[in-house]
Amino acid sequence: MYDFTYHRPATIDAAAALVAAHDDFKVLAGGMSLIPTLKLRLARLSGVVDLRGVDTLKGIRREGDNIVIGAMTTHATVAGSNGIAKTIPALTILAGGIGDPLVRNCGTIGGSIANADPAADYPAAVVGLDAEIRTNRRKIAGAEFFRGLFETGLQPGEIIVAVSFPIPEVAAYAKLRQPASRFALVGVLVAKSAAGVRVAVTGAGPAVFRWKDAEAALERSFDAPALDGIEMSADGLNSDIHASAEYRAHCVRIMAKRAVIAAR
Q: Do residues 18 and 121 share a domain?
């Protein structure tokens, strides 16, 4: 690990000012991705801005027909929330399946989303539930937030402060996990609301994406057999030591069917 200065501001404005003033400062949320990167000397920063002292970034609340989760809320807190379990149980199941107890008690929803790991679970929830990303500057539609491999729509100096999830009629998440890391080899979130059906896929491609063919089939009949005969193309999907693109393509339909069954 290279030397760097450590900052722990008490407000989001102070944190944003630090990041905006230094091109090579990074925000530290849960640290589950940044700290290992620094320890392995895969990145060199002159400063780290720790958000753990910003209390306004923590917590869960209901705003009308939405559940709003502060960016520094841990996965364990989401997984254990009775309020979320009653309104969007798919989120508690998703959060409870992230990593191991250490990761769930340190990792945060804002950190996960900002990192945009292609195998992370939360991007499927953001896109599948049509969430809204709130930053210190603006609001970003979840469908427009993820741009590619580890790439988001965040601008320099912009920090996520909360994520707002509309409460669906039904929703469920199913994933095939990598046994060691528990990242998603394929994860699928299916949600049905007044606006229609959304099927979001994580782990299979360079970034989360919607499976439009499955959405159209489930609009006609929200039942697992509706997905029979619909194939996902392997073109552009991830292929690595854990799973080939063809295997991931096959698993997308399997996980989608499981999610639909769990949602009914």
A: yes
Q: Dihedral (C-alpha) 241, 242, 244, 245: value to the nearest 10 degrees?
A: -120
Token pair, residue 20, equals 């905006």
CA distance 31 to 33: 5
One domain for residues 33 and 88: yes
Q: Which domain holds residue 132?
A: 5-166
Q: Are residues 145 and 200 in the same domain?
A: no
The per-residue pLDDT for 157 is 87
Q: What is the CATH number of the domain that holds 148?
A: 3.30.465.10
Contact present, 178 and 119 (Cβ < 8 Å): yes
Here the CATH number for the domain that contains residue 198 is 3.30.390.50
Instruction: Check: pTM over 0.90? Answer yes or no.
Output: yes
Q: Could you tell me which of 191, 186, 195 has the C-alpha nearest to residue 172? A: 191
Structural domain count of the chain:
2
Calculate the alpha carbon distances from 110 to 3, 13, 42, 235, 252 in Å.
25, 16, 22, 30, 26
CB contact at 8 A, 107 and 30: yes
> How many Å apart are CA 133 and CA 142, to the nearest integer?
6
Q: How many residues comprise the chain?
A: 264
pLDDT, tens digit, 9 for 90 and up, residues 26-49: 999 999 899 989 998 988 999 999
